[in-house]
Amino acid sequence: MQRMGSVLGIRPEAIDEYKRIHADVWPEVLATIEACNIRNYTIFLKEPENLLFAYFEYHGTDWAADTAKMAADPKTQEWWAICEPMQAPLPTRKEGEWWAQMENVFHVD
Predict the structure, then answer these.
(1) What is the pLDDT of residues 65-83, one digit of tens each?
(2) CATH code of the domain in which 28 resides
(3) How far apart are the C-alpha atoms of 65 and 36, rounded to whole Å?
């Protein structure tokens, strides 16, 4: 299992809507997340900086294949089309990233 964290900006005017839609995520999107070996997925909001922090645990063996599978799912694409205009990717993210990946520097159970 690999613990993963990422960060992304959110447009201040979209925060209420982002919270509303994430209070009732579509079942097909949740099923795709699970099918892609992602567990314990959590998104946190930090205001007034307007940052989203995502944490999840990856239980698969081929991250590239699982992320490609997720990106190819039509319902997930529909969900992303709603969410992406609300988001503000960090200018410091790596090429090809939407959510900027973070380095895990400490963990304790």
Answers:
(1) 999 999 999 999 999 999 9
(2) 3.30.70.100
(3) 9
